[in-house]
Amino acid sequence: MEERTGVVTFTGNPLTLLGPDVGAGQPAPDAELVANDLSPVALSSFKGKVCAIVAVPSLDTPVCDTEVRRFNEEAAKLGDDVVVLGVSMDLPFAQARWCGAAGIDNVQTLSDHRDAALGSAYGILIQGLRLLTRAVFVVDKDGVIRYREIVPEVTDEPNYDAALAAVKELV
Question: How large a percentage of the chain has pLDDT more than 90?
């Protein structure tokens, strides 16, 4: 698997990402994730909708908590043609517990714990930690990536305004 360095840091320390450098204009790779009820969910099943894929290291961390709560608030305003996916390596049970406690009902959380399929396909799997780096991908209705942000410092939040603008341009 391709290794990429110099892309992200964690508290200033460099990390290595595994997988290809996937960017805007490229077809969105398909990946099979796990829903909170343990059912398989293919990213390709969202074709026909604008899809924001919000990858976070773990919902049980302060920055990830803040980020997914913010996207949950914004998702309520985006309409039925948009789906916002919160993806982490957390177990589906932990995701369901966190969503219930946080009142998350506009972001669909999906787990990449089984195969690291999203992390590997989108080049956002952190080597050695088996966590996803913080990233946002916006995929159009035809399955093409139109926006990508890999946050350079894992402990920082993404550029919400830019990601939401990309979503709104496609609706």
Answer: 99
